[in-house]
Design brief:
Elements lengths: L13 E3 L21 E3 L9 E2 L10 E3 L9 E2 L12 E3 L19 E3 L6 E4 L11 E3 L4 E5 L12 E3 L7 E2 L13 E3 L19 E3 L18 E3 L13
Parallel strand pairs: 1-2, 2-4, 3-5, 4-6, 6-7, 7-9, 8-10, 9-11, 10-12, 11-13, 13-14, 14-15
Membrane topology: Single-pass membrane protein
Pfam families: LRR_1, LRR_8
Subcellular location: Cell membrane
Length: about 240
């Protein structure tokens, strides 16, 4: 789909091109869809390693860009600049190696970056996403959570970090989430040996199974209702809470 042949359909609300043999999608090719709210381009074989922003869709709220082939490793830092109402962005099952710079996506409520190749340390990557509620980072290659990993995410409620390569979590990493986070998944991080409860005072659900090095857990999670843990003896510490 190129810019010389833009799609025409100003009343179209939803467009699903999932599974089509598309190789190129120009950023301006969808600019005529001024009322579009949902766009799905998943499971296409995109040749480019970089995804440009989509212009001319001011009402867009939901974008699904999952499994775009074996090449996609980055997206435009201004991806949301023409879609200020965007609430849900799914980029799972791609080849992203770093968290994109979402400099204009302040309206996002849900972001799915699971099943990519994001690695290294999280440190302030989401500071502009101040309205985010759900963040999915499972099945990546993250190794460390820095002190500023979740700065700016004061409204985050659900955080999935399962099946990464986490080795360390800074003792204050979850502090910015203290007032909002109620569901945390850190399961299957087999090198993780320590977990702090700082910032997890309101946590309702914790998944920590598959962490064989995490032999000792924090003394208590005062609001917890569901704990899915690695070792049976972990449960003993929480029977009286």
């Amino acid at each position: 789909i190129d810019a010389s042949e833009p799609l025409i359909g100003s009343s179209l609300i939803s467009l699903n091109l999932r599974g089509n043999p598309l190789e190129w999608v120009h950023g301006k090719s969808l600019s005529g869809l001024v009322k579009l709210k949902t766009l799905t381009l998943s499971q296409i074989e995109l040749r480019s390693s970089h995804l440009a922003r989509f212009d001319g869709m001011p009402e867009l709220r939901f974008i699904h860009l999952d499994q775009l082939g074996e090449n996609l490793s980055s997206i435009d830092g201004q991806f949301c600049v023409s879609s200020r109402k965007l609430a849900t962005l799914s980029l799972k099952l791609n080849q992203l190696e770093q968290v994109p710079q979402f400099t204009s996506c302040q309206g996002l409520l849900s972001l799915d970056l699971s099943y990519n190749k994001i690695h290294g340390t999280l440190a302030g990557n989401f500071s502009r996403l101040t309205n985010l509620i759900d963040l999915y980072l499972g099945h990546n290659q993250l190794e460390h959570l820095g002190e500023s990993a979740f700065i700016g995410l004061e409204r985050l409620q659900v955080l999935d970090l399962g099946s990464n390569h986490l080795k360390t979590i800074h003792s204050n990493a979850f502090v910015p989430l203290r007032a909002s986070l109620y569901e945390l998944n850190i399961a299957n991080n087999i090198q993780l040996s320590q977990l702090t409860s700082n910032g997890l005072e309101r946590l309702i659900s914790l998944k920590s199974y598959g962490n064989n090095q995490l032999r000792k857990l924090p003394a208590e999670f005062p609001a917890a209702r569901q704990l899915v843990l690695t070792f049976a003896y972990h449960c003993c510490d929480y029977y009286n809470h």
